[in-house]
Specification:
The protein is mostly helical and 118 residues long. The chain has one domain (2-117). The protein has six helices and no strands. The protein has helices at 2-9, 20-44, 49-56, 58-71, 87-97, 111-117. Helix 2 (20-44) packs antiparallel against helix 3 (49-56) and helix 2 runs antiparallel to helix 4. It is globular and about 50 Å long. The model has no long low-confidence stretch (mean pLDDT 91).
Length: 118
């Protein structure tokens, strides 16, 4: 759960790097919360509850996505490839799944090894 809260605390941080674990744990908790809110919203008659949540976590989602791309040595502008139907989503999925470089890159130190030193 701390992965999710850490991303929310850095809601507008687009610099630095994010580990795969940070990104995917945020995505998992985000998915679970979205599904729960979808059902709760329908049960109480407010179908837009999930949409309000999605809007609230838009900046943190963009931030962690950009930082994840930075970890793989890519610019955050690569998110725009997601606008290409089907192929864009597949390319982003691959980028989000591959391991980041083990050494420091132009976006900062590797968070995987930096967290073990702290």
């Amino acid at each position: 759960m701390h992965w999710y809260l850490d991303v929310l605390k850095q809601y507008a941080v687009f610099g630095g790097r994010a580990r795969r674990t940070e990104y995917w744990m945020f995505a998992l908790v985000n998915l679970v919360v979205s599904v729960v809110l979808l059902f709760v919203g329908r049960a109480i008659g407010f179908d837009y509850l999930q949409s309000v949540y999605a809007l609230a976590v838009l900046l943190p989602t963009l931030g962690v996505s950009v930082r994840r791309l930075h970890d793989t040595g890519r610019s955050g502008w690569w998110l725009l490839i997601g606008l290409v139907p089907v192929v864009g989503a597949i390319v982003l999925l691959v980028f989000f799944c591959i391991e980041g470089g083990p050494s420091e890159n132009q976006y900062g130190a590797n968070p995987k090894y930096a967290s073990t030193l702290a």
